[in-house]
Amino acid sequence: MSSSNSIQAIFFDFDGTLRHSLPAGGEVLADYAFQLGLPISHKDRLHAMRWEHYYWAESIELKADRKIYPEENREFWQNYCHRQLVALGALNGPVEELASKVFKYMEDSYHPKSIVPEDVFRLLPQLQQAGYSMAVISNREKSFQQEIESLGIASYFIFSMAGGEVNAWKPEPDIFIHACKRMDINPSQAIYVGDNYFADVVGSRRAGLQPVLYDPCGIFPDAGCPVLSSFEQLPSMLENL
To answer: Which of 68, 102, 180, 187 suits a disulfide with 208, CB 3.0-4.6 Å?
Structure first.
């Protein structure tokens, strides 16, 4: 692996890419809804996962919900449960009662662990030794640098950038442009690795970076860009870009 090609920098998404919540909230919600009698197929689960990515990519629905629930309070999350159940195929009739039960269960029982996948720990030193400059870009409101440090991966990154710190949000190109300027590179010299097609692929492509989708579950079969099912595939992919 060599950084002698035109790619000099690698930007990573944080949540869902470098950092994972285990178990995943969408899977726990779907499992419990299924236990309560909602018929859910594998196709339904994939549809709900795609919807979840769409929703959190600064969608019209998310912006509308934040105006109604500006603090992302309990009402916000109960409404989010309702939206997820609809995405899973719940009918409008009984969905309110089902959403109340699911929300109560998630509130009481969902306590995920925050982890970094093992293949990330193997990958980052490889990339650093190969001479790539690396940073993390997220749509979070506030700095998450302390969290990167607590997860044991901060030493690999020159900086981290939250959307709220620069008032720019994926999929708009500004957040990526900010990062490239801070790294002192042209967008064409960078790739962006993220798990959300709607935010990460669309946004980085708009800004002129090379998108790489991390999609181990096969949620986006028509991504139209290089796709990773494992981070172990990234070094050889970089050589072919």
So the answer is: 187
- Looking at the DSSP bridge assignments, the partners of residue 138 are 162
For residue 64, give every residue at least 6 positions away whose Cβ sits within 8 Å of its Cβ, in sequence order, or none. Answer: none
Cis peptide before 171 (omega within 30 of 0): yes
Q: How far apart are CA 125 and CA 176, in angstroms?
A: 23
Q: What is the pTM of this model?
A: 0.94
For residue 234, give the amino acid letter.
L
Q: Hey, how many other C-beta atoms are within 10 angstroms of the C-beta on 141?
A: 12
pLDDT tens digits along 95-116: 989 999 999 999 999 999 999 9
Q: Alpha-carbon distance 131 to 152, whole Å?
A: 20
Report whether 204 contacts 176 (CB < 8 A): yes
Helix (H) or strand (E) holding 163: helix 163-166
Please name the residue that has the structure tokens 């709220």.
Answer: 164
